[in-house]
Amino acid sequence: MILSENSVVEIKKAEYAGGYRLRLLFSDNRERTVDFGSFLNSSANPMIKKYLNPDEFRKFTIEYGDLTWNDYDLCFPVADLYEGRI
């Protein structure tokens, strides 16, 4: 969660947008499409590399306003996603 104009911002919805991109809707109604491809491709960590498998990548969930994979096996700061960077 992050603060924006004195309010907490969370991820309310995430939709698969092709490749390694997700379209995110935040609680302040801001939408952003984030491409995770560069991050996944540049990682040497096998725990992260497994998400290059499209079926694994699509198994994301939203938990308490955070975007996660496999019970926080992979997650990103909401502030970074809100700004479109990972």
Describe the structure.
By secondary structure, the protein is α+β, with helices and mostly antiparallel strands. The chain has a single domain (2-83), classed as NE0471 N-terminal domain-like. It has four helices and eight strands; from the N terminus they run E-E-E-E-E-H-H-H-E-E-E-H. The strands form three sheets. The protein has a three-stranded antiparallel β-sheet. A three-stranded antiparallel β-sheet has the order 6-7-8, with no helix packed on it. Strands 1-2 form a two-stranded antiparallel ribbon. A hairpin with a 4-residue loop joins strand 4 (21-26) and strand 5. The protein is globular. It starts with a strand and ends with a helix. 14% of the residues are buried. The model has no long low-confidence stretch (mean pLDDT 93).
What descriptors fit this protein?
single chain, 86 residues, alpha+beta, 3-stranded antiparallel beta sheet, 38% strand
**CATH fold call:** NE0471 N-terminal domain-like
Helix content: 10-25%
Please identify the top-level CATH class: Alpha Beta
The SSE string, one letter per element, is EEEEEHHHEEEH
| Coarse shape | globular
- Class of secondary structure makeup: alpha+beta
**Main sheet makeup:** 3 strands, antiparallel
How many E strands? 8
Runs in which pLDDT lies below 50 for 5 or more consecutive residues are none
Sequence-ordered SSE layout with sheet pairings:
Layout: E1 2-4, E2 7-9, E3 11-16, E4 21-26, E5 31-35, H1 37-42, H2 46-49, H3 54-57, E6 60-63, E7 66-69, E8 74-75, H4 78-83
Antiparallel strand pairs: 1-2, 3-4, 4-5, 6-7, 7-8
